[in-house]
Amino acid sequence: MAVIIAGERSGVGKTTVTLALLAAMKARSAKSPVQSFKVGPDYIDPMFHSYITGLPCRNLDPVLTSEDYVKGCFAKHSQNAEYALIEGVMGLFDGATGKDDTASTAHVARLLDAPVVLILNCASTSRSIAAIAHGYRTFDPRIHIAGVVLNRVGSDRHLELLTQALEPLNLPILGVLRRQDDISIPDRHLGLVPTAEMSDLDGIIERLAHLGETCFDWEKLLPLMASTHPAAPSPSERGGEEILLPSPTRRGAGGEGLRIAIAQDRAFSFYYADNLDLFREMGAELIPWSPISDRTLPENIQGLYFGGGFPEVFASELAENKTARASVYKAITSGIPTYAECGGLMYLCDRIVDFHEQSFPMVNIFPTAAKMGKRLTLGYRQAITLQDSPLVNKGDRVWGHEFHRSSLTELSDRPLYSLQGYDSHLQYPSEGWQKYRVHASYTHLHFGAQKHLLDRFLNNCNQVSVIRPVGK
């Protein structure tokens, strides 16, 4: 099947352990495919997975998609891999609400019937570690904890005390990481620094591979990670409902022959692999370009796609590329359908104001500034659409996720969305912009179980003439 790397809380070392295991497995046998997955809506951790394995990491998120989609996605992408490894999110039982564990690592573990390896932070504790491990193992009997990894072990004597405490539980110790084994991966205001910005990434991966090779019990771990090529749920198991998974044989007439310019560089890198697959499976061609370094948009395009990322970090370079900004402005005001989420929304504003209060001009489609601040906006959102856009019809309800530290100085007088949290009684300020043929919002979307949104976008792209860049 696969093994899930879970933590007893956030910050316990899930990503370090996951990357160490992936790097060691890749170093052991470069020809044995290792498919990785990430629970939740995160973009950055999957970049590191993919850099190591050479395969796109897939997000498993039952809120942004559905339970059936999670099972089908896992089955599809693990079937050709020799090993499969899933990195959890937050603490094992932490999800969208405190009332249950919806969207948690435990939720996904139950859906996939996958064993869990629990990482324990052993700093400043000894015998009490047994109480923590016992509590996690018995809290939900449906979760199979196959073993533990002891992290931040201080000394041989400390390890001896921990081992003695855990022995009555008959819970295998599958790995031991010492305090000096900590490998620092740079981070900033939204998590780890993306792979494209790290000059010493190969060196870090080499150190992680050594950590993985020397600190884990591979004889016990490898059988847990061996993929058993699970089958996707049958129509009867899923009540006859269609699971909207990317498939090499699936084609949608709405996208045939379309060229969609997709912003992909250091400023714009937040994209779900399944979303990109769906564009291609529906016949559209994604044309990568860089708002930082390319002078104009690609030629002969019928749509624009701006994902999230860190435009605030590269605001100076984006501002300096005046011809690219002019090219985007002309294309949008000429009527090209455009989808922009989070960082993409910020790029289409009048300006970005960074953490140092410096202001940088952007494309100026929307008469507002995106201003960085200390407050983190984070969580699942059910968005009730208030306006028609190239992706949605008024009255539609879609699931998305917000994750940003910026806010807009001016709000649209006709916002795109009214927002509710996962618990419907939690209301959030309306947000999003719809102007010309642009759908722009802070809310990230996954098209996997909402394919109709992509259908609508590509149908809108089919209705426009080819947009040629400025100066062509």
> Might you state the CATH topology name of the largest domain?
Rossmann fold
Helix content: 25-40%
Q: What is the end-to-end distance? A: 53 Å
Structural class, from helix and strand content? alpha/beta
Shape by Cα distribution: elongated
What is the CATH homologous superfamily assignment of the largest domain? P-loop containing nucleotide triphosphate hydrolases
Low-confidence stretches: 235-242, 248-252
In round numbers, the mean pLDDT is: 91
**Percent strand:** 25-35%
Query: Taking Cα atoms only, what radius of gyration do you get, to the nearest Å?
Result: 23 Å
Q: How many separate domains make up the residues?
A: 2
- The CATH top-level class label of the largest domain: Alpha Beta
Strand order of the largest sheet: 3-2-4-1-5-6-7
Count the E strands: 24
Count the DSSP helices: 13
* CATH architecture descriptor text of the largest domain: 3-Layer(aba) Sandwich
- Can you summarize the main beta sheet? 7 strands, parallel
